[in-house]
Design brief:
heterotrimer; A mainly alpha; B mainly alpha; C mainly alpha; A: mainly alpha; Helix Hairpins; 5 helices; C: mainly alpha; flat
């Protein structure tokens, strides 16, 4: 039981972070709070992907030393952290900021037309 | 007893996330979200993903916070929940 | 509504925590994610691209089309921000 907790508590903490973001997206009525929840949700997913790249037991950063770069020393697969999830998540972070910018632009547009940020008041005016 | 550093960082991250959801003032929420992004950046540097860490520190914690503050300044600071 | 949302959140979290029970342990060097594609990148990046930083060589060399598509996404986001935020003459 204690081995299970030690091996998996990271994943459970990512699930808790994702639940915080999801709760904010569903329940909060302020639009900026919803966007903050979306940001937390996306960061939790990215954190989960990065954690699958981690290797315990002497693995170093995915950058070669001088001897390895000049071919004097072989690169071991177990001695280097998996670089592929890092690359995919670099793309995901930039897309996250792009969606954040578009979402905040839409919020500013909504505020100019309805003069409020509360979702219930906007729905009441729209009816 | 030694506490692993990633557990400490994760507790800080969860506290920052809950605080940015709960606080009523939207400018404070944006600032706490910036602190959350920097804790996330430290977490990724601890996991060995240095490229992702400095991309997060410049793009998400820098530009994201600036975008939030600009949007809150153009709209309103008050929030009911 | 608040209670209903909290219930949905708890349900989703319970399903995800049940899903983590079959995941490989944190930091396992023999997990499927680090055994399938990335050993080829790690071993061949010095021979094929002569770049010491593996993340850079995968990002800009092996998966260059991915980065090119990302540029399209950022361009679309910038254009939509401009069209949403411009002042209309009325």
């Amino acid at each position: 039981m204690i081995e299970l907790v030690i091996a998996k508590y990271n994943y459970w903490i990512y699930v808790i972070l994702m639940m915080i973001g999801f709760y904010a997206m569903i329940v909060k009525t302020n639009l900026v709070k919803k966007i903050i929840g979306m940001n937390i949700f996306q960061t939790a997913i990215i954190l989960f992907y990065i954690s699958t790249a981690y290797k315990m037991g002497g693995a170093t950063l995915p950058i070669m030393t001088d001897a390895q770069a000049h071919g004097h020393e072989a690169v071991l697969v177990d001695g280097v952290i998996n670089p592929l999830p890092h690359v995919l998540m670099l793309t995901a972070i930039v897309v996250m900021v792009a969606t954040l910018g578009v979402a905040l632009a839409i919020v500013i547009h909504i505020y100019r037309r309805y003069n409020t940020l509360n979702e219930d008041e906007i729905l009441k005016v729209m009816k | 007893m030694t506490v692993p550093i990633d557990l400490v960082l994760q507790i800080f991250i969860i506290v920052c996330a809950v605080a940015s959801i709960v606080v009523k003032d939207l400018l404070s929420a944006a600032m706490i979200l910036g602190a959350y992004s920097f804790f996330m950046c430290i977490m990724w540097a601890q996991m060995g993903a240095v490229d992702v860490a400095f991309t997060e520190a410049s793009v998400s914690a820098g530009i994201g916070t600036i975008l939030f503050v600009a949007a809150v300044m153009k709209t309103t600071r008050r929030s009911k929940d | 509504m608040k209670f209903f949302g909290f219930l949905i959140t708890l349900l989703t979290g319970a399903v995800l925590i049940y899903g983590t029970l079959d995941m490989p342990a944190y930091g396992d060097p023999d997990s499927p994610a680090s055994r399938h594609v990335s050993p080829r990148y790690i071993e061949m990046t010095e021979i094929e691209t002569a770049t010491p930083n593996m993340v850079t060589s995968i990002l800009a060399d092996y998966r260059g089309y991915d980065t090119m598509g990302e540029t399209t996404v950022i361009f679309t986001a910038g254009m939509s921000c401009i069209f949403l935020l411009r002042k209309r003459k009325s």
